[in-house]
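Tokens as discussed.
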């Protein structure tokens, strides 16, 4: 089963210089909006869902370290915050939902 991550989390993970020090990503296959791609379009909205179908994290000499999914899961566990993407019915009063989320300390993207 493919790992699921939001584009906001993907961008945060890739920007983490400490996590990626001495490492690179290779053999990446992602699924975004039903299309298989090897790279993420930087213009996608932050709530876009990215499915990691396959990929590896390797040393800069391209020696295998672990799967990309495992690497990102471990990275997420070290983070103080998470990014969530949710779907709600159109008729839901999303103003009340937004106010509640802000009240509990959430930052809406």
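Sequence:
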């Amino acid at each position: 089963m493919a790992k699921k991550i939001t584009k906001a989390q993907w961008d945060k993970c890739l920007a983490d210089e400490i996590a990626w020090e001495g490492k690179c990503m290779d053999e990446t296959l992602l699924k975004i909006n039903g299309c298989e791609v090897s790279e993420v379009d930087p213009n996608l909205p932050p709530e876009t869902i990215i499915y990691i179908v396959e990929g590896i994290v390797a040393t800069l000499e391209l020696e295998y370290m672990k799967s990309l999914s495992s690497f990102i899961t471990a990275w997420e566990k070290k983070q103080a915050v998470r990014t969530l993407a949710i779907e709600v019915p159109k008729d839901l009063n999303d103003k009340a939902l937004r106010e509640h989320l802000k009240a509990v300390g959430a930052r809406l993207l």
